[in-house]
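Collaboration report, partner site 2.

Our partner group contributed sequences for two proteins of shared interest, and the home lab folded both. The records are reproduced in the order in which they were received, starting with the first partner submission.
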Amino acid sequence: MEGVPVEIISHLTLAGFAGVVQLACFPIDRHLITALVERWRLETHTFHMVPGEYTITFQDIAIQIGLRIDGKAVIAAVRGNKAQIMEDLLGIRPLDDAFMGSGLKLSWLDQHFTHVAMHNHNELQLTRFARAYILRLIGDFMLADHSSREYSGGAAALAFLYQKLCMSTNIKCSGIGGLTPLLMMWAWDRFPFLQPNNLVHTRPDIPYGARWLVSQSYSRHDTRSRHRPKIPNLVPL
């Protein structure tokens, strides 16, 4: 999702997603992530380095990407007619083929909620567009795989990232889902010599991790050989 429609910023802020939405287009260093995955252990959900074990925590979720980490757990199963629920929330009733299992396909959201101008006729339509935008943000970025303000979206995102890290250690797995930008930001913050540059955070209105977006200096073409010799012996700040 490129660019955040200004018409729904207030809705995103109210729902607690105004911070994380700014990181949705974060460029990915796949080689750094691969090097980290090689140090991940399923038994402890930690990165095993020579000096000890380290992991990503709720603090990283809250500070780096600005997601809520307290509140109700995102665990409840949806009961009732799925199509009716979507019609009530989004104003459009999906057909049966718009669902995959219990989930709504992102392609359906992309088809019906791409341009805010089509939904900018009244406040109810804007609210519905904001809901669809948040669903796309969750599916495309936060819980990527192939809530409201009172819910702990950060807890769900961290648990999902742990799950995807565990799955990615399987030699048959060719990719990783979840908040992969958080892996990079966590590594850069904990181990400064991996940083593409040393940036100062001067915008308290945006997540701490968003400061990396102003940098255009780090390359997407770093090789794994650059990271592998460094990571096992890392000593964090």
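Second partner submission, folded after the first:
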Amino acid sequence: MALRRLLTLVALGGSASGFLVAPARPRARPLRAAEADNDDAAAPLSDDDAAAARASLERLMLAGAADGAERPVERSEPVAMSGTAKRRRAEERAHIEALGRARDPEAFGAAVTSLWSLWFSERGAKNKEALEEIDLMIGSGEACWEDASQAAAELVEVHPDWPEPLNRLATLKYLTGDFAESVELCERVLALKPHHFGALSGICMCHAKLGDDAAVAYWRARALPTDDDERARWAARALKAFDRQASNYGA
């Protein structure tokens, strides 16, 4: 039961950004790829990798968000990944595997935390800090949501292929009742990361608010399960999609 309660909190936190109730701080300016920190622990993707991901996203959106989220478009000419990008993908793959193996709250919580930390740091330490400040603004209440939306939109404009600012915008659209736009943002997240359990939870919540039972059923079948065995199968499917997506970049 403890693991089931933790899963429920993670699912809700995926759409509500795992709120941190704290006073909002002045937000940092989002850094462009050339400005982001180059430390090995939180290095951003290279410009080539970012351009390749952007092109992949555009093709996925044209092909249809729902299908694209499940089956990334195959590339006829794979684009080589940088060493940093390969290392980060290897880490992400290991965390997905750990999520599928988890059989107790501690192991599950560690896998979830590791994935969130990795996703937050995909554009360097300074941009991670800006994203964390957006979370603080979201958690500070409705009076800060306009500023949070502006800050998240700035990050999306600079890094359109980074899922986490998109997920924060989806959160804010949900909180303000714009469920249809939140769905679109969740679909963009899932086009980039089909296994993003936060966006999967969020899109289910949005479709439920919109009264679309068929869409709720479709996305709920793809959401992170609470049952251990079902979650192991979910992770296995996620890894297949993850590896297929990596092959598009020549990894």
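Feedback sent to the partner group on the second submission included the following. The chain is about 70% helix and 0% strand. Residues 78 and 247 are 7 Å apart (CA to CA).
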